[in-house]
């Protein structure tokens, strides 16, 4: 199924011609309308006329989150506030937020991008969707909301929290689609399974999940619990919000809306481009964004790109599910550790739940990693031999994956914090303990 078939299946040469045309336009647009970019591109000697091929994008300087914060609140807006019809901001908890603005045309394009990824996994006007993202400055809820409405879906703006009421709405309104973070979808499913109402009272068939990483193991658990088809979508407030890319029914990568975004993969250390198929940091240039254009924005997300046409018929390149972030990566005794690696070991393992926490400490001059894992059945705590056996199993599998020693702590059921928004898995205490 397609929302904009001509654009989604455009032959690669024609798509690249469109990208080049729009890249030249956005460079000229930024020079004329954003003083920050006029200065930076001028210093680099870049003009629209000098962009002869798509590879010439390499001469454009990168943009990062610090640039946005340094120009807080609206120094990077390309239009006056009279042309801005929506403002969102990042959900970051430290420092000033990254504020982004949208014109009417931006919102129109955004709705189409969401409609594309939803239609690609079988969403139709017959579906009833419950959005369990928090509404507000966060882009996720409203982004999915208007895109699903564009298709013709009935949308329930449930927001996050009040899980029992969420479950009641899912049952009573015969909701067929759920929008939330993967961790909240999993938590809701646990509550549903523990509830007095039978699972046959739920009618979910599609999950559009995002805002945080989701390993294949976690996705399988969500699908098993809910009996739905779980899909992943990707986006950043700085670029637009959700809709930058999304899976199709084949689930062989997330299709990037390449007529709106130009993606690159670079080495996060050397900043040099990586070859197609190589893993690195995702960099994205917006090609049509009017209110808040971004040139070569460093997302910090680690992925790879696949330019082979998909079996679904779409020709836009696919990105791998993000495996981690360069700024979420833990460095433990010289080894790079991502929460997703730990999660892939834990999810689905017998006797333990899907909730965990990584605690990093500095003891003497060495870093240590403790993995707190929640048991499903507290009675296991009464059997020392069984606990020891389970701890050893988790320890050995993590050592095989991570290559380092970890301390495994098994905790009682429902004692680790649950999250309605993005799950916070890392507790880094090295700053507190470094002087002890």
Q: Would you tell me the structural class of the helices and strands?
A: alpha/beta
Number of DSSP helical runs: 12
The major pleated sheet works out as: 9 strands, mixed
Strand order of the largest sheet: 4-3-5-6-7-8-9-14-13
Give the helix proportion (percent range): 25-40%
Basic shape:
globular
Mean pLDDT: 91
Radius of gyration: 23 Å
Total count of strands? 21
Residue fraction in strands: 15-25%
Uncertain segments are: none
Distance between the termini: 60 Å
Write structural notes for this entry.
α6 links the parallel β3 and β4 (154-156). With 436 residues, the protein is of the alpha/beta class. The protein starts with a helix and ends with a helix. The model has no long low-confidence stretch (mean pLDDT 91). It contains 12 helices and 21 strands. 42% of the residues are buried. α5 crosses α6 and α10 (339-346) packs across α11. The chain has a 9-stranded mixed beta sheet, sandwiched between helices. A 4-stranded antiparallel beta sheet has the order 10-11-12-15. The protein has helices at residues 5-8, 12-33, 35-44, 65-70, 104-119, 139-151, 163-172, 182-194, 216-226, 339-346, 384-402, 430-433, and strands at residues 86-89, 99-102, 128-131, 154-156, 177-180, 206-209, 229-236, 241-247, 254-256, 261-266, 280-286, 297-303, 305-306, 318-319, 324-325, 330-332, 335-337, 352-363, 366-375, 407-411, 426-428.
């Amino acid at each position: 199924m397609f929302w904009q078939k001509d654009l989604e299946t455009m032959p690669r040469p024609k798509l690249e011609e469109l990208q080049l045309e729009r890249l030249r336009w956005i460079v000229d647009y930024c020079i004329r309308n954003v003083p920050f970019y006029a200065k930076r591109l001028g210093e680099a000697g870049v003009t629209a006329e000098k962009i002869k091929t798509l590879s010439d994008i390499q001469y454009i300087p990168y943009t990062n989150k610090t640039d946005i914060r340094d120009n807080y609140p609206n120094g990077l807006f390309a239009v006056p506030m009279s042309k801005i019809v929506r403002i969102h901001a990042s959900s970051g908890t430290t420092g000033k937020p990254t504020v982004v603005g949208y014109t009417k045309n931006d919102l129109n394009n955004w709705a189409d991008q969401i409609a594309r990824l939803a239609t690609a996994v079988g969403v139709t006007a017959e579906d009833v969707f419950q959005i369990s993202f928090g509404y507000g400055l966060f882009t996720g809820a409203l982004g999915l909301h208007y895109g699903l409405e564009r298709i013709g879906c009935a949308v329930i703006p449930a927001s996050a929290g009040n899980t029992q009421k969420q479950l009641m709405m899912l049952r009573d309104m015969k909701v067929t689609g759920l929008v939330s973070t993967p961790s909240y979808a999993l938590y809701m499913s646990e509550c549903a399974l523990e509830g007095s109402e039978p699972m046959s009272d739920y009618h979910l068939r599609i999950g559009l999940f995002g805002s945080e990483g989701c390993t294949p193991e976690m996705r399988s658990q969500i699908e098993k619990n809910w009996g739905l088809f779980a899909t992943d979508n990707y986006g950043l407030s700085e670029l637009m919000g959700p809709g930058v890319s999304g899976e199709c029914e084949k689930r062989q990568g997330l299709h990037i809306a390449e007529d709106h975004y130009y993606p690159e993969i670079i080495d996060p250390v050397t900043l040099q481009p990586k070859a197609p198929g190589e893993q690195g940091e995702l960099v994205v240039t917006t090609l049509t964004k009017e209110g808040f254009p971004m040139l070569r924005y460093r997302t910090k997300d680690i992925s790879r790109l696949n330019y082979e046409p998909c079996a679904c018929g779409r020709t836009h390149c696919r990105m791998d599910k993000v495996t981690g972030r360069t700024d979420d990566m833990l460095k433990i005794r010289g080894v790079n550790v991502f929460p997703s690696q730990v999660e892939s070991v834990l999810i689905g393992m017998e006797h333990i739940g899907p909730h965990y926490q990584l605690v990093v400490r500095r003891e003497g001059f060495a870093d240590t990693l403790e993995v707190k894992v929640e048991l499903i059945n507290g009675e296991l705590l009464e059997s020392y031999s069984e606990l020891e056996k389970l701890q050893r199993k988790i320890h050995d599998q993590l050592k095989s994956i991570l290559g380092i020693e970890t301390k495994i702590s098994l905790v009682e059921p429902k004692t680790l914090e649950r999250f309605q928004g993005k799950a916070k898995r890392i507790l880094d205490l090295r700053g507190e303990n470094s002087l002890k």
